[in-house]
Amino acid sequence: MLISMPRRRIAAALASAVLGLGLLTGCGDDVSCGLDQCTVTIARETNASVEVLGVEAKFVSADDSTVTLDVAGEQIQVTKGQQAVDVGGLQVSLSSVTQDAVQIQVSR
After folding, report:
1. Total structural domains within the chain
2. How would you class 66 by CB atoms within 10 Å of its CB: exposed for 0-12, middle for 13-18, buried for 19 or more?
3. How far from 5 is each of 13, 14, 18, 66, CA to CA, in Å?
4. Percentage of the chain with pLDDT > 70?
5. Could you identify which of 54, 59, 63, 76 might form a hypothetical disulfide with 48, taking C-beta atoms 3.0 to 4.6 angstroms apart as the criterion?
6. How many of the other CB atoms lie within 10 Å of CB of 31?
7. Residue 37 CB neighbour total at 10 angstroms
8. From the CB of residue 20, how many other CB atoms can be counted at a distance below 10 Å?
9. Which domain holds residue 44?
10. What is the pLDDT of residues 45-81, one digit of tens each?
11. How would you classify the pairing of strands 66-71 and 74-79?
12. Which candidate, 49, 47, 52, places its Cα nearest to that of 36?
């Protein structure tokens, strides 16, 4: 029994590492990820998109404080300073809006 106990711990540690790496899949140059949350920067141009946590997010439109995105095939609006929006199993919130880009937080 003493021999199998360390093996279980090693297996559990490996499983956790694989899960963590799986959550990071899809993170690219415009995406900075932690274990279960990503900061995403999307250009303010027609059809700009990025894949994050296995889901595609596309820029649709924006004004000074509200951004419309297509996330996982659903169109949503996120407003700076307001609660995150649930979509496709993710929580999406707006961090900032500039003339050139929008920055959102995406978490599981």
Report:
1. 1
2. middle
3. 13, 14, 20, 52
4. 73
5. 59
6. 19
7. 16
8. 13
9. 4-107
10. 877 888 888 888 889 999 989 999 999 899 999 999 9
11. antiparallel
12. 52
